[in-house]
Write a structure and sequence with these properties.
6 helices, mainly alpha, single chain, elongated
Length: 138
């Protein structure tokens, strides 16, 4: 397991190993999508050799660069999802607070004004905010 965090690794400068890894990924990607029978057979042979010679599942073994990249991508994906959820809740809470404030302001208005407006319960929150802003003169 890598000791450096994914953010720390993302901030470091690229070295020769990074460029070698990028080249290896390009070649492997090309091999995976190749229609050339020789490439397909070589890839199949490589996979068979690795499968036959790989040690039993060893939890203490170091992860290779592709596994580390996969784990970093998964971690970044999880962090983005958490940020999106936080933003969504924040916007929803802000809209709810804004709607409550506008409803309070509308309650302080003379009752005849509200009777001429559409029911605030028949519309979406966004429409409610727009209607109440108009009634409040904002």
């Amino acid at each position: 397991m890598p000791t450096e965090s994914a953010a720390g690794q993302a901030m470091r400068q690229k070295n020769q190993a990074d460029y070698d890894l990028e080249r290896a990924i390009e070649l492997f990607d090309t091999a995976l999508t190749s229609k050339d029978e020789r490439v397909v057979n070589a890839l199949r042979s490589l996979m068979m050799i690795v499968t036959l010679t790989a040690p039993e599942s060893d939890e203490t073994a170091e992860h290779g660069p592709l596994r580390v990249m996969q784990l970093e991508i998964r971690e970044l994906h999880d962090r983005v999802r958490k940020i999106e959820n936080i933003m969504s809740r924040t916007v929803r809470d802000r809209d709810r607070e804004q709607l409550d404030e506008l409803k309070y302001q509308a309650m302080k208005m003379p009752s005849g004004i509200l009777k001429s407006a559409p029911s605030i319960y028949d519309t979406s929150i966004t429409a409610d905010i727009d209607i109440l802003k108009k009634l409040a003169g904002k």
